[in-house]
Amino acid sequence: MDAATKRNPADILYNEVWELSRTIVEARKQIGALRPSSLKTKNVSAALLEMDEIVKATEEASNTIMDSAERMSAANATDAGYANLIQENCSSIFEACVFQDLTGQRISKVMKTLELVDNHLQALQDLLGPEYEEQEDEAEEVTGDAALLNGPALEGEAISQDDIDALFD
């Protein structure tokens, strides 16, 4: 071997330690950019409060809409104030539907926080490399009512109506 291909073991060790040191410095920068305490106390806490407000607004709007519809449904069309009752309840329903705009604004704030966290975590993952990828957690088997409580499917994940109809054919 010539001198260019033959390397001193001390040089190899020095280069490895130097590369490890550089990786540690970069990882510290990425972790510092995450600002875990800021994310926890400011961003994530604010996102949780926003989500709580979304739930409250949605519940209040739903109750208002259902109560108004119930009053209209129970009303007698021959009563003298029928037209006024229908008008008032329709107005209440329209006013309650304003929640959609407010919840959309709140959801946008939550999405920005989630994107911030995701971007920082992805940068840290990229720095650490594939050997540090998380192992898949073993999912606990969910049974009973809990197995049914997974919410609506995302677009493209749900079973199509044609597939459901085919089951009954």
Question: Which segments are poorly predicted (pLDDT under 50) over 5 or more consecutive residues?
Answer: none
Order of helices and strands: HHHHHH
Q: Level of helix content?
A: over 70%
Give the tally of structural domains: 1
Roughly what is the average pLDDT, rounded to an integer? 79
Number of extended strands: 0
* Proportion in β-strands: under 5%
Distance between the termini: 76 Å
Oligomer: single chain
**What is the 3D form?**
elongated
Structural class given helices, strands, pairing? Answer: mainly alpha
Give the biggest beta sheet: none
Compute the number of helices. 6
Rg, alpha carbons: 29 Å
Detailed description of the structure:
- The protein is mainly α.
- The chain has one domain (9-129).
- 72% of the residues lie in helices and 0% in strands.
- It contains 6 helices and no strands.
- Helix 1 (9-34) packs antiparallel against helix 4, helix 2 packs antiparallel against helix 3 and helix 2 runs antiparallel to helix 4 (99-128).
- The longest helix has 39 residues, at 36-74.
- The termini are far apart.
- The model has no long low-confidence stretch (mean pLDDT 79).
